[in-house]
Amino acid sequence: MMHRPLVSPIFENRFDAGRQLAEKLTQYKDKSAIVLAIPNGGIPIATQVALALDADMDMIISRKLPIPLRPEGGFGAVADDGAVMLNHEVVNYLKMTEQQIHYTVNKVRAEVQQRSLLYRGHRTLSILNGRTAIIIDDGLASGYTMLAAIESVRRKKPARIVAAVPAASATARKLVEKAADEVITVADGFMPKFYVSDYYRYWNVLDDDQGLKVFKDWQMRRQNLNLRPENLPPPSMTMRRKPLI
Question: Which runs of E-coded beta strand occur in the chain?
Answer without folding.
Answer: 34-37, 56-59, 62-67, 70-79, 84-86, 132-136, 160-169, 182-189
